[in-house]
């Protein structure tokens, strides 16, 4: 798979024994198997091409066969037979001058905070490359994880996890309160603590060293007292997607007190830079989430201005049929919006809400990381939603008095997925218009020259 991606002009990075494809949203690749850290799912080469190149099964197979790809490894069978290397911490350097200079002068971390972790032997300098090593331990104090960060400040510095480390035990601090703060990287975690030093040791903190939620789950298993969770990931597309994905996963296992804290700039270390007068990297807008918020805000007033539907389920069936039979993307976008409006009207007639409540109820069913799904999968979501709505409301009985909250949730989900279709098409149209306009400008400029 690595060879296939390289043949398509994609950029890959070595990440331990795997390859990392960042353009797809942090997808790790080993031989013919891939795994998306953001979406927490993976598969084989054919499934990869189906998902990321929007191909049918037959077209995906044909695309792979036509490439005549040579394996990137010299001897795959030999590599598969090799035993997994045991986890081993990098050898420490005799001094830690270089990492102190990096963490204090280049990253502007608080000296006392850094010294605390150094004294606990959770931060040290490696002998070979003078990397800053962040150690993760289990509840018995045994090292199970190590994240390396290059200390050179020119260009992109090296970062990566030590081979065979366990993601569940990444760099962290365990306090005594019920509060857990979650970060993407050790520098982010230490930056936040540096900004909020008062009584910081009282709380717990974990750095994912990725965007997987395994370290969060392990912290909760090891510390049953933790029940208030703050997700403090980067203020960019990947960080925001991970915020919602991890919160959703935590909600599924019974943790409902989960909130977001986002930095003003791209990440927490940028705030420390700004305080030192250095131009910080700005936050990166989440285009698809902003579009969904815009559509939700525009839809609810329409719902409030319309009368109650006389035959709500029959109206939804008609809207759904028109959506599925749309002859163009423009018509599909209009029909998707109409389905959303009538679905929310039906929900509002069953459980009366004000405008703000309706907005929140719809947005609660929106998971930004799902925007990366292909258009066909978004259509399949609508089909599954409608099947569930038909199961709940498709009989002739009047169920006004025994409507359950989860029944109305099915309507909110259908409305949300309908607006997601409209959002997808609108953003596609904006992108295409921009490209066409740019092309026209280029032609015009050449002609004028």
Give keywords.
single chain; 449 residues; alpha+beta; five-stranded antiparallel β-sheet; five-stranded mixed β-sheet; 49% helix; disordered C terminus
Element layout with pairings:
Blueprint: H1 2-7, E1 13-15, E2 18-21, E3 27-30, E4 33-36, E5 41-44, H2 45-52, H3 57-67, H4 76-81, H5 97-106, H6 111-119, E6 123-125, E7 132-137, E8 143-149, E9 159-161, E10 172-173, E11 179-183, H7 186-195, E12 204-207, H8 214-222, E13 228-231, H9 237-252, E14 258-260, H10 268-275, H11 287-305, H12 312-324, H13 329-350, H14 355-363, H15 375-393, H16 405-448
Parallel strand pairs: 11-12, 11-13, 13-14
Antiparallel strand pairs: 1-2, 2-3, 3-4, 4-5, 6-7, 7-8, 8-9, 10-12
Helix pairs in contact: 2-3, 7-10, 11-13, 11-14, 11-16, 12-13, 13-16, 15-16
Question: How would you sum up this structure in a few lines?
Answer:
The chain is of the alpha+beta class and 449 residues long. 49% of the residues lie in helices and 12% in strands.
Write a structural description.
The protein has about 450 residues and is α+β, with helices and mostly antiparallel strands. The protein is built from 16 helices and 14 strands. It has helices at about 1-5, 45-50, 55-65, 75-80, 95-105, 110-120, 185-195, 215-220, 235-250, 270-275, 285-305, 310-325, 330-350, 355-365, 375-395, 405-449; strands at about 15, 20, 25-30, 35, 40-45, 125, 130-135, 145-150, 160, 170-175, 180-185, 205, 230, 260. The strands form three sheets. The chain has a five-stranded antiparallel β-sheet with strand order 1-2-3-4-5. A hairpin with a 5-residue loop joins strand 7 and strand 8 (about 145-150). Helix 2 (about 45-50) packs across helix 3 (about 55-65) and helix 11 (about 285-305) packs antiparallel against helix 14. The radius of gyration is 25 Å and the shape is globular. Residues about 70-80 and about 435-449 have low confidence and may be disordered.
């Amino acid at each position: 798979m690595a060879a296939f991606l390289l043949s398509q002009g994609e950029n890959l990075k070595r990440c331990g024994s795997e390859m990392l494809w960042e353009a797809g949203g942090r997808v790790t690749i080993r031989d013919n198997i891939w795994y998306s850290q953001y979406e927490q799912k993976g598969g084989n080469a054919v499934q990869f091409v189906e998902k990321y190149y929007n191909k049918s099964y037959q077209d995906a197979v044909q695309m792979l066969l036509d490439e005549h790809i040579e394996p990137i490894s010299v001897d795959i069978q030999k590599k598969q037979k090799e035993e997994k290397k045991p986890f081993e911490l990098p050898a420490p350097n005799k001094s830690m001058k270089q990492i102190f200079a990096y963490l204090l002068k280049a990253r502007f971390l608080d000296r006392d905070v850094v010294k605390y972790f150094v004294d606990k032997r959770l931060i040290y300098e490696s002998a070979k490359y003078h990397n800053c090593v962040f150690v993760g331990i289990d509840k018995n104090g045994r090292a199970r994880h190590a994240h390396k960060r290059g200390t050179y400040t020119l260009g992109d510095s090296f970062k990566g996890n030590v081979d065979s480390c366990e993601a569940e035990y990444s760099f962290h601090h365990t306090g005594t309160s019920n509060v857990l703060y979650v970060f993407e990287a050790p520098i982010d975690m230490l930056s936040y603590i540096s900004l909020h030093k008062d009584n910081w040791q009282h709380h717990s903190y974990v750095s994912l060293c990725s965007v997987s939620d395994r370290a969060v789950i392990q912290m909760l298993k090891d510390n049953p007292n933790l029940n208030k969770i703050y997700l403090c990931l980067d203020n960019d597309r990947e960080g925001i997607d991970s915020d919602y994905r991890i919160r959703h996963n935590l909600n599924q296992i019974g943790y409902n007190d989960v909130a977001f804290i986002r930095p003003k700039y791209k990440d927490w270390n940028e705030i420390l830079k700004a305080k030192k007068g250095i131009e910080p990297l700005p936050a990166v807008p989440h285009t698809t989430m902003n579009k969904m918020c815009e559509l939700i805000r525009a839809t609810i007033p329409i719902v409030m201005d319309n009368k109650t539907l006389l035959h709500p389920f029959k109206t939804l069936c008609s809207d759904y049929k028109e959506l599925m039979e749309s002859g163009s993307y423009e018509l599909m976008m209009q029909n998707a919006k109409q389905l959303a409006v009538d679905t929310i009207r039906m929900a509002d007639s069953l459980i009366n809400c004000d405008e703000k409540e309706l907005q929140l109820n719809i947005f609660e069913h929106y998971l930004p990381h799902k925007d990366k799904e292909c258009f066909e999968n978004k259509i399949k979501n609508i089909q599954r939603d409608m099947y569930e709505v038909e199961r709940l409301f498709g009989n002739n009985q009047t169920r006004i008095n025994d409507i359950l909250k989860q029944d109305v949730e099915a309507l909110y989900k259908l409305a949300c997925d309908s607006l997601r279709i409209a959002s997808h098409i609108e953003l596609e149209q904006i992108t295409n218009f921009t490209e066409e306009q740019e092309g026209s400008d280029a032609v015009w400029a050449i002609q004028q020259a």
